[in-house]
Amino acid sequence: MTKKVAVLTSGGDAPGMNACIRAIVLACERADYAIIGYQHGYNGLLNQEYCLLNNNQVHNLIQRGGTVLHSARCHEFKTDEGAKKAAENLDELDIDTLIVIGGDGSFKGADHLSAFWSGQVLGLPGTIDNDIGGTDATIGFYTAIETAVTSIDKVRDTADAFERIFLVEVMGRHAGFLALHAALASSADYVILPELFEKPDVTLECITEQLNERRKQSDHISYIIVLAEKLWPGGIDNLAKALTEKTQSEVRPVILGHVQRGGSPVSEDRILATKLGAYAVSLVTKNVSGVMIGERAGQIVEVPLKLTWEESKPLDKQMVTTMKTLMNERYA
Amino acid sequence: MTKKVAVLTSGGDAPGMNACIRAIVLACERADYAIIGYQHGYNGLLNQEYCLLNNNQVHNLIQRGGTVLHSARCHEFKTDEGAKKAAENLDELDIDTLIVIGGDGSFKGADHLSAFWSGQVLGLPGTIDNDIGGTDATIGFYTAIETAVTSIDKVRDTADAFERIFLVEVMGRHAGFLALHAALASSADYVILPELFEKPDVTLECITEQLNERRKQSDHISYIIVLAEKLWPGGIDNLAKALTEKTQSEVRPVILGHVQRGGSPVSEDRILATKLGAYAVSLVTKNVSGVMIGERAGQIVEVPLKLTWEESKPLDKQMVTTMKTLMNERYA
Amino acid sequence: MTKKVAVLTSGGDAPGMNACIRAIVLACERADYAIIGYQHGYNGLLNQEYCLLNNNQVHNLIQRGGTVLHSARCHEFKTDEGAKKAAENLDELDIDTLIVIGGDGSFKGADHLSAFWSGQVLGLPGTIDNDIGGTDATIGFYTAIETAVTSIDKVRDTADAFERIFLVEVMGRHAGFLALHAALASSADYVILPELFEKPDVTLECITEQLNERRKQSDHISYIIVLAEKLWPGGIDNLAKALTEKTQSEVRPVILGHVQRGGSPVSEDRILATKLGAYAVSLVTKNVSGVMIGERAGQIVEVPLKLTWEESKPLDKQMVTTMKTLMNERYA
Amino acid sequence: MTKKVAVLTSGGDAPGMNACIRAIVLACERADYAIIGYQHGYNGLLNQEYCLLNNNQVHNLIQRGGTVLHSARCHEFKTDEGAKKAAENLDELDIDTLIVIGGDGSFKGADHLSAFWSGQVLGLPGTIDNDIGGTDATIGFYTAIETAVTSIDKVRDTADAFERIFLVEVMGRHAGFLALHAALASSADYVILPELFEKPDVTLECITEQLNERRKQSDHISYIIVLAEKLWPGGIDNLAKALTEKTQSEVRPVILGHVQRGGSPVSEDRILATKLGAYAVSLVTKNVSGVMIGERAGQIVEVPLKLTWEESKPLDKQMVTTMKTLMNERYA
């Protein structure tokens, strides 16, 4: 065994994290590296809580949601004392490379650790929110879209049956990726997301006008609005109330919530997770550290960890244009 | 054409209503009966709003959620004037048989109509709540279970990853069928439903004790509670807050909501819908009216409409026993 | 620990076997019984290959397909020497109760063992074929229907797009349960299954006549035939060829195959598995042995093992009637 | 109405074709263009068989598999007479733009038509095979991967339960895209596809060596091989037989077949279809014709139709590298 690698998952869990762990373990075995997994995110690193990983343990794992290494928040790790402790623990186990699968908070932690530890630190983007700079998609994003979209497909059945207005809140923290993709793929009639949102009353006006225009064509229509979480002042119930008043129609709110974090990863997430995981292991003997492995325009890229939270990441322009066209540009 | 049949869907939509419409239309064609569909529930009956139905229109329909005939509430129909108007409309079109697919509210309407119309009135149980007497299952119930269970499967991924407590609210109006089936099939740790619920503080005590007992075995456990809607005083957020205080742990609420009403029906709902629909058509020449067609112990039954809301319908005893055993009887 | 229970899975794997193992383990823990699992079916019993089972091992197991105890064929076990060896092994471990989850072949083995072992032997019906007497459904049957039906839903998309004839072969050994349920739930136009099959040329004639009749209404129709495996002389390709000649149309064969055995169990299978598993454990202190636990007309029943293969089990009459009606009785 | 657009679907149907039709219809309505749909591929164009399309007809269509415009082969269209007739028909209806959704055969037809018709001809890539130059993905490809992968997930349950070798044949005509993606995403142990295939005996040797190596670690392993269709001399049964002999183990073949063509499109296909469809309509007033609209490295591109079949399209290099690493390079 020429090298020893450690992996951990941190931050919100995302479908495909297990697929990524599997790829890392198998690639390490092929390269004859030892591989361990720290449990409960950075807490495991601080408490030297880990397990040996091998082929058998990751068999039949690619399709499972969640993370077998568990995840957790860890405030202590953010301190210099925490990072030093972590560095000591890594050295104690003779770890050459630490691979962190997580979101921007996890990468900040990894970057901070780099100041106290001389080993190789690699990040892999795992979050359903896709709010990580330097990579087109993150592990878990595709599955979250699929979960949101199949849920909205079900809501549309009822919306059509009753010709009613539904308001569906999807996750996404402070980015509109999930809302935009879910809205476009579910043929939502309107989408409200951070990057395109101006003022509540402008939005209310646009929705009402578009709805009125559509009702001129037919009395019997359903209407689905996709809303990004944490965006509307007072929350989804507030928006539902305002819309009910403005449109004189019943408006039903649906909050998709934590269902969006779990589930068996779709193929795209499994493939992304597997490619990035295997690539990370191929870097173990290379002189590179403090980077996240991502994918841009179909190419694997190595991005300095800092860029993952400093770089602003815009929505896909063509998708925005398309959504506006279908919503009717006048009201978008 | 010796006979003329009309069908409508009323009340909350349920997966399998379309499968039922299809079976009725095909069975009518085979028997050489004319068949029309009233739209928007009883509203269509009052406004003579209907469409002719045939083989082509119901092709590729069996797997679609919602109802192509649409549904709606109709207060006017509950009045004697409404029922008389409906009777006149049915006679105007020479309808011999009216088939109503819906829940107990729809059956009350159908029963009321019987007092003013001499034609044949047949009910078919369509609701995800399964709260209809005289039949073991209702069309849509199986799909709603499946939707709830696959959602809870996803929640469990995150619950396990973070070893956290989740509270999942499922539909069911005033009956615990959906909560019990979903809890058992999703391996929930606890279930709170009308038929088994005593006092909030007793329930809080039971959950806490069971949780403490399980934590003696391991610090790292997840815990999922399934809650029937409209049951907990102050709602799910209230329960989440109370549990957080009592267990000193984060508790995350998830409301499955309207997602449970839609979706492609699972096979069991398609089969039930098809059997009941075809059987209803086989009664068109028989001297029977004012009944719901249901299934009990694997046999098709004809039940007076009144029984469907008067008869109390208990939970499956063996399922209750099983759930209590797995929850640990002491705390159930 | 007052009692010691062993469980094994035998015969073809079926979705829900893991859910059943989980229920048995949890019910044993609640009753304070020890519980072990023999691996690789009866082979494990012969080779004393087993594992201790507890709560942790069956966590998050309810939704997984296959069987964590593995399964395998075992010819040696059918001999008297094999059964004696098994009895000795069971006694060596002080087993009070052996629970076998499997099909009729597995039950024959269990029954044979009873002649050589004085402990309690209980069977639980686990097979996708539903060809077990004494129970309305078997663990795995509902999931296999769902898998077949969602596959046929996909085939129908292409059949409709090209207005083409498709022939879909489903599993079922020598019984037509899966074929009948899958055909009815997928709105197949025709079904060929052992219980309703007379002669190949009669069937060919019926299909052709029905097809011609439907083509009188429209040139543009798709047509789907569900075929039970091992039924048509020369196999599905032979039937496809014969149909092509007779109908002068392209006929595409699809063999669903082993896909039907796996997958996450649907709720109905999880519930059945859980009820039967928990009930089996409740019998551990009762004076009953050599029985299978099944469910009939919604009630749990205990059935002598012999009946499970001796009793003939008919198709659901109402389903047969319904299928014939929808296929058009003249050609059924 | 300043412009008039016609759309048709041709070649093998693919999930997302309906989503594409919907986007085209809505974008045309927004731009105030008239829009018609030719039915049955190029046959409709030759027979002037078409329907007017509008908002209502494409409501609730985005999630449906197949194509509502139907598809079909059309030999007559390949002749000069056929193309001339088509051109006349298009002029008769005053069509400005013809949009063809299909594969390379369909694009050859569209290109041929361009020689006889002065209107605008646009192609959109719709095929599950992804064998179209000039675009990274084709509409339907993502869904076909997902269908194959969820099927192989089910096969793995049985493979694991019995520790058996399974051989799964996926579609893909003469390209290995589907095989490679499905193999990587389903954690297959080996993949056989056109781009990486040398000689049958080399492959047999590699599989056997890899299998033997893995069996040194454990007797109890399952092993899944993904095979591209039409590749192995004598077909999958031949390979199964050869493997059985060579490995002295049972090998079960599974042919996924036509199931892979249908089904509700996954989000990625819906999004691609919607973007490309809306973009095509945005070209209606532009001076460009004889191109396919595709997506490369996240950017919409316009590619001369000829390139779509002349340009060779390689597999994703990183995926090939990853698959080889995980298969163990020595045997890949």
Question: Can you put this structure into words, describing what you see?
Answer:
Chains A, B, C, D: Pathway: Carbohydrate degradation; glycolysis; D-glyceraldehyde 3-phosphate and glycerone phosphate from D-glucose: step 3/4. Chains A, B, C, D: This is 6-phosphofructokinase. The structure is a homotetramer of 332-residue chains. Chain A has 332 residues and is of the alpha/beta class. The first copy, chain A, has helices at 17-31, 42-46, 80-92, 104-114, 141-162, 177-185, 200-217, 236-247, 267-282, 305-310, 317-327, and strands spanning 4-9, 34-38, 50-52, 97-102, 120-125, 165-170, 190-192, 223-228, 251-255, 291-296, 299-304. Chain A is elongated and about 70 Å long. In chain A, strands 3-2-1-4-5-10-11 form a seven-stranded mixed β-sheet, sandwiched between helices. A four-stranded parallel β-sheet of chain A has the order 7-8-6-9, sandwiched between helices. Chain A folds into two domains: 4-140 and 265-310, Rossmann fold (3-Layer(aba) Sandwich); 144-261, Rossmann fold, CATH 3.40.50. The first copy, chain A, has eleven helices and eleven strands. Chains A and D meet through helix 1, helix 5, helix 6, helix 9 and helix 11 of A and helix 1, helix 5, helix 6, helix 9 and helix 11 of D.
Shape of chain A: elongated
Q: Which fold name corresponds to the CATH topology of the largest domain in chain A?
A: Rossmann fold
Mean pLDDT of chain A: 95
Radius of gyration of chain A: 22 Å
Indicate how many domains the architecture of chain A comprises.
2
Class from helix and strand fractions of chain A: alpha/beta
SS elements, strand count of chain A: 11
Spatial arrangement of strands, main beta sheet of chain A: 3-2-1-4-5-10-11
Helix content range of chain A: 40-55%
- CATH class descriptor name of the largest domain in chain A: Alpha Beta
Order of helices and strands of chain A: EHEHEHEHEHEHEHEHEHEEHH
Subcellular location (chains A, B, C, D): Cytoplasm
Pfam families (chains A, B, C, D): PFK
Family (chains A, B, C, D): Belongs to the phosphofructokinase type A (PFKA) family.
Pathway (chains A, B, C, D): Carbohydrate degradation; glycolysis; D-glyceraldehyde 3-phosphate and glycerone phosphate from D-glucose: step 3/4
